[in-house]
């Protein structure tokens, strides 16, 4: 099956600044992908490249088997919601649906109308007077009703309160099942990603740190509590083990260890442990 996004040695530079470097990933179809990293890690750059909004400085990227934005037909296959859930403040909810219908040949008017009614959005309400959560839901509705094969969301919930974030992510899961669409969701909120994602990419320092199915990544990462200096516990690790990062917390020192074999005395790391370990390790070496 053709991957939804595939890159090889992809890079993007702005003058002397490298925003993305040697990025090689392969995202299978049918996944909800969490793209995570600290601010400035290159997340928005990667998504901009995938949408064809910017051109790469080097390397290769294909989206659904073709170069991004290669044609109008290719553009119609990808829905995109940029940061801050952009909507037109002077247009009403109904205006947004009419505009979506005019711009998108595959527009699903029934889907858009059902979502607006279920969310309780007033069709006559100006978008500028909606709450942050309602604006995010309107932007998601427009992107979903495009009926593309890939939906790209660039930190759509970053400015929302926890209740609005939970509602947005719940709806995302619901209609991705209905539409059978692949999703790439960028966020720095690992707890939110853990609720919905089955594939994880960690970007830090403009480079890919890990990329893989969540179940596979969690299976090979362990949280090991260290007593004292921790030297004894670390010395006893299996030969194939790799210490990703160690840190001191109120509960004591811990290490996140990558190893396909069992690690004595360790417990299974969760998605947040894994993502943070790679981000913090990269920051510590910069």
UniProtKB/TrEMBL annotation:
Stretches assigned to coiled coil: none
PROSITE patterns assigned: ABC_TRANSPORTER_2
Family matches, as SMART domains: AAA
CDD domains the UniProt entry points to: ABC_DR_subfamily_A
Entries under InterPro entries matching the protein: AAA+_ATPase, ABC_transporter-like_ATP-bd, P-loop_NTPase
Gene Ontology molecular functions: ATP binding
Keywords carried by this UniProt record: ATP-binding, Nucleotide-binding, Transport
Domain ABC transporter: 5-230
Matches recorded under Pfam families: ABC_tran
Family note: Belongs to the ABC transporter superfamily.
Name recorded for this polypeptide: ABC transporter ATP-binding protein
Record organism: Dactylosporangium darangshiense
Lineage: Bacteria, Bacillati, Actinomycetota, Actinomycetes, Micromonosporales
